[in-house]
UniProtKB/TrEMBL annotation, chains A, B:
Organism: Marimonas arenosa
UniProt cross-references to Pfam families, sorted A to Z: M20_dimer, Peptidase_M20
Protein's recorded name: Hydantoinase/carbamoylase family amidase
Cofactor or coenzyme needed: Zn(2+)
NCBIfam families: hydantase (TIGR01879)
UniProt-annotated binding residues for Zn(2+) 1: H76, D87, H178
Amino acid sequence: MTVKPDRFLADLHELRQFGASGIGKGVVRPAYCDADIAAREWLRGRMDAAGLATHYDPMGSLFGLAEGRSLLLGSHSDSQPEGGWLDGALGVCAALEVVRAAKEAGGPPVSVVSFQDEEGRFGVTTGSTVWSGALSLEQADELEDRDGMRLSEARGAMAHLLGDWVDPKRFTGFIEMHIEQGPWLDQAGEAAGVVSGIVGIRDMRITLEGQQNHAGTTPMHLRRDAFQGLAAFNALLGERFQNVVTPQTVWTIGHVSLHPDAHSIVPGRATFSMQWRDGDAERLKRMEDIIRTTAREVAEARGLGLEFGPMLGLEPVEMDSRLRGALEAAAEAEAPGKWRVMPSGALHDATNVAVHMPVAMLFVPSIGGISHAFEEDTDERDLVTGLKVLAGAVARLGG
Amino acid sequence: MTVKPDRFLADLHELRQFGASGIGKGVVRPAYCDADIAAREWLRGRMDAAGLATHYDPMGSLFGLAEGRSLLLGSHSDSQPEGGWLDGALGVCAALEVVRAAKEAGGPPVSVVSFQDEEGRFGVTTGSTVWSGALSLEQADELEDRDGMRLSEARGAMAHLLGDWVDPKRFTGFIEMHIEQGPWLDQAGEAAGVVSGIVGIRDMRITLEGQQNHAGTTPMHLRRDAFQGLAAFNALLGERFQNVVTPQTVWTIGHVSLHPDAHSIVPGRATFSMQWRDGDAERLKRMEDIIRTTAREVAEARGLGLEFGPMLGLEPVEMDSRLRGALEAAAEAEAPGKWRVMPSGALHDATNVAVHMPVAMLFVPSIGGISHAFEEDTDERDLVTGLKVLAGAVARLGG
């Protein structure tokens, strides 16, 4: 099986014209916007031309189906509100080229997918979540974007295109190629990463309720300052996590909202996000226990009220050993000694697809570790190496 | 000189009908609103009835002038957007009653003032700031409220009432009676506080600039998390201040804004307010040095950019010893052993008036230390004790 790098790169560059931001190779193509639907229609034409039977499911995920049972390759073609040209689009275009190369080589049969709303305009990996059965279409339709538009209304923009669900049993497995979105491969000068597993994620909102008060007349020892509670919680958490975490574990307080948020008023309330990720479900649980215990201790010691919001989470997913083995063998053939096995700290559609079938993932380097930004980029030589590793794995698996 | 508590309390209760919130004794009477202007016109009628020559200055501060040189008493009658019935209104009504009692006793001559916009719809103690000369009327006219309305436009609503500036040389000194707005007197069961000085205040905005990044793929040791920078700064500051501060010193981070403020993104920027107050200008300077040094060290250690906004400040003001002595003697006579000397942690018009003449302040307890809220209240027995202390001081000073 011989892939044609020029055909693949030409596709990628043509696809980035849909929603081109005008800044570098940046792309503005959130799910269901005009540019997203136009890009999907263009992809559908490419799939038709490659001899695949094209089909949109009720969420707007686009499938290019080979006859009979086949391997499924792909990712997603929607972008962040400010995104790059590669992200998921890379995995879709690479899949297309492997389909064409496999056809030209007389097999194996390969299908392609571009999932809808992976970037979470309405949820998180929304299209593949609904396909996985974790969320019903009726529930998903109630989700709202930042501007208060419902998913049901957004789906309406492509209603004339949508068909029924695709039966996951048609597929023998799923391989998703994607940019790394982190710094490791780029820093090491490596060309590819074979994913060992996708980390699990926990996310919740925590509220500390103190006493809003005059910042001039309220002495320090009588204050119940909600921001100081948050700061104490954050510091203690960092200490206590040291005994539990690995170098791959991450945790983030990314959102903070104080009330009334005024220079001259002691903060009466602090609401903040607490998110943590790790490849080990047991470690995630131990971290949750530490978070809850630490928040309770800080709240009690400082006379603060405490409220935990609902905890959202996705479980860690191990990659399938057969699919992963094929990727490792192909990586060693294409980039001997210049690849590694690594976890994925970002979520991907593969997490949801794993409910239905064996899954694996392949990473290519992100320059400077940058993604979800107009500056996102990867050296075209690395893109082509990734394509060849993907094709090599498909050839080894034989469908 | 004999004050009449009933007449004084009747005035206070009548005044709170202007802008009554309908919740307890709460008041909604921000500067220049209809209720504020109506309240000033009602006060003007009361001043007329007490034999004073009434006059609005260009800012809308209302004066009731005795003939010749006199002591000036008063405070302000505008309220916070959600305020209580006492705050500055107390000092204006108490001043009125002392004028009447002094008249009835055949002297000394006493004038009254209700400054405009003490609560800072447009600035901070705006009316007395302009009267003090620290800000020109032209500069003040450019100030905007939260809704973008200019002070010049707001003043227009009472343009038909406004006259020229009142010459500060008419006054031998200024005594402002006010609620404490803090917990000390209430907690100690004391009836009055004679103010030793009004604390100085420093206020600035600090920005830490990190690297916005993916919260799943960016390992902890490679992050430049602006919120973690803020937390580290806050913790170090608390430690370092311990060697410098007194129990009266306060500092507050009341406003925090993260960018992009999302659960899944390592914060790339944290902008926050840093405010500190103390009665000693040298201590304020030492604290400023610690703040700047600590922020620089944290920024350097964590690879963060650092920007200090302009520092706003008002200097600490010592109360005049002669006026203060009169208040102390009167307090001991009216509430033997049940009063104290204390600093004011809140700003007051007296800070500005001190540019022109000797000033002093008298506090009465705030129940639960609550102010700037509908729940603000003081036991009427304490209000009357305060009135008697004020009258006693005026009698001792003899004008």
